[in-house]
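Students often ask why we bother predicting the structure of a whole assembly rather than each chain alone. The short answer is interfaces. A chain on its own may look different once its partners are present, and contacts between molecules only exist in the joint model. In this exercise we take two input lines together and write out one structure for the complete complex. Read the inputs first and try to guess which parts will touch.
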Amino acid sequence: MVNIGTIGKSVVIKGELCASEDLTIEGQVEGKVELKQNILTIGANGKIKASVFAKVVVVQGEVHGNITASEKIDIRDAGSVDGDLASPRVAIADGAHFRGSIDMQRGKALDVKPGDAVKPVVEAAKPASPAAPAAPAPTALVAPAATNAPR
Amino acid sequence: MLKWGSRHADGPQVSPPAVPAPADAVVTSKVFPRFLAAVGHAPAPALLDIGPVVGSNVTYFGERLACKLYVEDLYSDIEAHARRGERAALASFFATRLKLAPESVDGILCWDLFDFLDRAAGQVLAGQLARLLRKGGALYGSFGTTPLELTHYTKNVVLAEDSIKHRVSPATPVTRTVLLTRDIIKMFDGLIVAESMLLKSSTRETLFRRP
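Now the answer. The structure tokens for the assembled complex follow.
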């Protein structure tokens, strides 16, 4: 069974978020998001000000920052990205907002080998209840503030 | 007596006929395949599209050229200036609008953007674009040859290398700036015309190369 974590829409995270399972973000994240071998979905309510690294990135919400994906970036019709994209495959739906550059040069995108250790800063991003208060994120979830400023 | 070129404020204004907003049309291009071939020669080309982002074009260029694509929607800048009644400020705006390094791209897609600019803004933008092109690089543009009132922008959806679908969206009306071929050549100083084709739609498709 595939684990899919969810960051609820009332959750705000500032810092570095890493996971080794698929993740859906409906809340707000500032800093860096890294799921090198998994699928990251930024939900319709998700607001990201971060550099994003994943195998596949699906954007239905807002992203301010650069996105790197080893397989595919998919910006859906309600999605909005202000930043640079790097991936061998990029899909942008009609109606999506995009401003930045798109790097589809073969062999230049994030190269993730199966043996690559993705440091589990987060063992597993715990599903957050949408009703949960917007409290500071648990320390296990957040590494020291990221230096990568979004574009 | 009126000076040559001045407007008579009180007299009847004769507006040029407006371009009817066409339904989505598919046009055949003879110059666009040459553009793709020129850009395709570079091993890892960088492309600048100064039109609005079109998802299927991104996919097309990615699969065809495996390129790096910069999207800078200058049409939206023009529209924003037009709505504020500041078209005259476009020349100075374009002087600093594009932040890419000189000689950093292999291909530039201008589409029909210059139809919406006055000569001063067109001159500035053309200079900026020419500056960005690498040696051997190519620039594709189309230029209307009749002074019509433009009431819509055209999104260019690439269907195949010689086939482009035009999708229209409303624009703040403006009279098309008609440039003579020699003026266009002068404007893109430092580039040479590699191909030029007058279409049945009275649009001149032009491919420039940087020698």
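Check your guess against this: Helices of chain B lie at 32-40, 55-65, 74-83, 90-97, 119-132, 181-187.
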